[in-house]
Amino acid sequence: KDRVFNTPLCEQGIVGFGIGIAVTGATAIAEIQFADYIFPAFDQIVNEAAKYRYRSGDLFNCGSLTIRSPWGCVGHGALYHSQSPEAFFAHCPGIKVVVPRSPFQAKGLLLSCIEDKNPCIFFEPKILYRAAVILCLFSSFFQVHVIREVAAMAQEKLGVSCEVIDLRTIIPWDVDTVCKTVTCQAPLSMGFSRREYWKCFLQAFSSHVRHCFLSNGQCSKLWLNRGR
Amino acid sequence: MKGQARSRRGEGRIAERWSVKMAMAAAAVKFWGRSRGLGRAGLPLLRLLAARGLARSHPHRWQRQQHFSSLDDKPQFPGASAEFIDKLEFIQPNVISGIPIYRVMDRQGQIINPSEDPHLPQEKVLKFYKSMTLLNTMDRILYESQRQGRISFYMTNYGEEGTHVGSAAALDDTDLVFGQYREAGVLIYRDYPLELFMAQCYGNVSDLGKGRQMPVHYGCRERHFVTISSPLATQIPQAVGAAYAAKRANANRVVICYFGEGAASEGDAHAGFNFAATLECPIIFFCRNNGYAISTPTSEQYRGDGIAARGPGYGILSIRVDGNDVFAVYNATKEARRRAVAENQPFLIEAMTYRIGHHSTSDDSSAYRSVDEVNYWDKQDHPISRLRHYLQSRGWWDDEQEKAWRKQSRKKVMEAFEQAERKLKPNPNLIFSDVYQEMPAQLRKQQESLARHLQTYGEHYPLDHFEK
């Protein structure tokens, strides 16, 4: 409770407090609930954290400070739960600003920020927040039973969480449901084969998916995700 | 016809939502419980919960809720521990007779209440006196040097020497100090060499800060004095964080945080006070209320009873002291330190004093206050005079020693001053280091670019004044 705790609701206080902890050499990880609310802490970040080492001639520093904050749009956040304020900090020498593209990247980069000897801001794209569905298995008719068994085995033997989607219809098939899962970065495995579908899914393996699907010669563009 | 694939997870999700709602409803009832009232909103709420299936699952509990109201009328709000009152009354802020000012000596340096005399040994009290007078001498010489164009800027500490020395003397040497900019006496008391004061003001090669900041932005890791920064009150939440870290480390250290009554208006001050109280930090908040924030008098800074009156609002033990009485400052800080470490809680000391000098060399305070007002404080209520009277009445000081010390301290300051003037400025390469712990490539390129520029156009720069 003394290591992970609530503070009063005050971003300038949260960051200032974190700086103070870091000045003593202890590691501080300050959370700003949404990046949209980081602005009260702008003075502490830009005028204090970023300049601590330089202005003191390296007598003091707050390198063991990391600020983490949920970042970016999710669709329904409107003005104050969707902002991407990294550009405001990009012009401030003395801090590092980090934005991961995937959960896997996020883990490594957060650890790097924490270990880094400079104050870091770690923006966590909210769109990456979801339960850990690692694998998507698409199938139809009796293969679904097989796939379900596979999913259970993967969970038991490998600790891998799988989402099983029973397509039910081959043509027309539920593009929307599949796309929703695909764009959430889960790698895919097909239960039936058709060349067009294979092409799309192979494309979808790439972590820079922009278009999702060629279906019956039609191209349906789904999400355009920059930097994902 | 569009296919409707059903994800098994989707089904689970809906079921999950229901059970969450029911769990919340059950928790709400459990929290409010039998003995607590729900008030007028309670019955409709209960009916809603009943409609959602709660009644079906917990019929007995629902029945019990209906008979709570008249039995237990005490307030149940989580946000305050207080009684009800049925009289409409606003609490009157007491600014006519505010929080009293603790003092040990009168204006003539005589102890008022002998039981409050700290009975400090002669050596220690002499150190108080010599620290305050040395600071005063250094201030005079450096203020003059700015007027002569030798340094770019300076801030004097006239009138506030007692607040620095009294509080510094009550701390351990390892207690961390976060200051604002008018606390040089704390460094003097901790034996920061004159050479380093001068080095920082001149920005020469000996400056620990590598010549990067304006004068009076001192810092010293060895003496646990965090480097000063210009933005006001930013040090307050930082000091609280440092105190929290000290608590976790079981360091038996306190952090002291100095600020003026003007900086106390900043949001960072409010943040710091609240965090210190809620997170139980061993910190002393030391407010130097000197009557002015540059040209803003206290009547335009706040309407309440100063800064001490704010402490209780945060749940902080607070005291107001006579800042020009070095023993009062000492006693208050000593006791605050003892308890802050023992009880892990913050203390607020508001030291009333007067800023005799201008805000800085960029200010001319005759524009906003009378010379008479300044003279009163300089002549009638000065921390140095009061302590001198005390020393003299104890037979620990006399006019002879005064003359000798004035000469000696002036000589020391002048020597350091002249040496500092002759030294070179730091190497221009130091413009680029310490921005990050390691120098990134683009800064290295800029550094190399400057080096090339100086090679070609060096004759246009006063490179002789800078270290190669």
Automatic annotation (TrEMBL), chain A:
<dbReference type="GO" id="GO:0003863">
    <property type="term" value="F:branched-chain 2-oxo acid dehydrogenase activity"/>
</dbReference>
<dbReference type="GO" id="GO:0007584">
    <property type="term" value="P:response to nutrient"/>
</dbReference>
<dbReference type="InterPro" id="IPR009014">
    <property type="entry name" value="Transketo_C/PFOR_II"/>
</dbReference>
<dbReference type="InterPro" id="IPR033248">
    <property type="entry name" value="Transketolase_C"/>
</dbReference>
<keyword id="KW-0560">Oxidoreductase</keyword>
<feature type="domain" description="Transketolase-like pyrimidine-binding">
    <location>
        <begin position="1"/>
        <end position="131"/>
    </location>
</feature>
<dbReference type="Pfam" id="PF02779">
    <property type="entry name" value="Transket_pyr"/>
</dbReference>
<dbReference type="Pfam" id="PF02780">
    <property type="entry name" value="Transketolase_C"/>
</dbReference>
<dbReference type="InterPro" id="IPR029061">
    <property type="entry name" value="THDP-binding"/>
</dbReference>
<protein>
    <recommendedName>
        <fullName>3-methyl-2-oxobutanoate dehydrogenase (2-methylpropanoyl-transferring)</fullName>
        <ecNumber>1.2.4.4</ecNumber>
    </recommendedName>
</protein>
<dbReference type="InterPro" id="IPR005475">
    <property type="entry name" value="Transketolase-like_Pyr-bd"/>
</dbReference>
<dbReference type="GO" id="GO:0009083">
    <property type="term" value="P:branched-chain amino acid catabolic process"/>
</dbReference>
TrEMBL record, chain B:
<dbReference type="GO" id="GO:0009083">
    <property type="term" value="P:branched-chain amino acid catabolic process"/>
</dbReference>
<dbReference type="InterPro" id="IPR029061">
    <property type="entry name" value="THDP-binding"/>
</dbReference>
<dbReference type="Pfam" id="PF00676">
    <property type="entry name" value="E1_dh"/>
</dbReference>
<keyword id="KW-0496">Mitochondrion</keyword>
<keyword id="KW-0560">Oxidoreductase</keyword>
<comment type="function">
    <text>Together with BCKDHB forms the heterotetrameric E1 subunit of the mitochondrial branched-chain alpha-ketoacid dehydrogenase (BCKD) complex. The BCKD complex catalyzes the multi-step oxidative decarboxylation of alpha-ketoacids derived from the branched-chain amino-acids valine, leucine and isoleucine producing CO2 and acyl-CoA which is subsequently utilized to produce energy. The E1 subunit catalyzes the first step with the decarboxylation of the alpha-ketoacid forming an enzyme-product intermediate.</text>
</comment>
<keyword id="KW-0786">Thiamine pyrophosphate</keyword>
<comment type="subunit">
    <text>Heterotetramer of 2 alpha/BCKDHA and 2 beta chains/BCKDHB that forms the branched-chain alpha-keto acid decarboxylase (E1) component of the BCKD complex. The branched-chain alpha-ketoacid dehydrogenase is a large complex composed of three major building blocks E1, E2 and E3. It is organized around E2, a 24-meric cubic core composed of DBT, to which are associated 6 to 12 copies of E1, and approximately 6 copies of the dehydrogenase E3, a DLD dimer. Interacts with PPM1K.</text>
</comment>
<dbReference type="GO" id="GO:0005759">
    <property type="term" value="C:mitochondrial matrix"/>
</dbReference>
<feature type="domain" description="Dehydrogenase E1 component">
    <location>
        <begin position="129"/>
        <end position="428"/>
    </location>
</feature>
<protein>
    <recommendedName>
        <fullName>2-oxoisovalerate dehydrogenase subunit alpha</fullName>
        <ecNumber>1.2.4.4</ecNumber>
    </recommendedName>
</protein>
<keyword id="KW-0630">Potassium</keyword>
<dbReference type="GO" id="GO:0003863">
    <property type="term" value="F:branched-chain 2-oxo acid dehydrogenase activity"/>
</dbReference>
<keyword id="KW-0479">Metal-binding</keyword>
<comment type="similarity">
    <text>Belongs to the BCKDHA family.</text>
</comment>
<keyword id="KW-0809">Transit peptide</keyword>
<dbReference type="GO" id="GO:0046872">
    <property type="term" value="F:metal ion binding"/>
</dbReference>
<dbReference type="InterPro" id="IPR050771">
    <property type="entry name" value="Alpha-ketoacid_DH_E1_comp"/>
</dbReference>
<dbReference type="InterPro" id="IPR001017">
    <property type="entry name" value="DH_E1"/>
</dbReference>
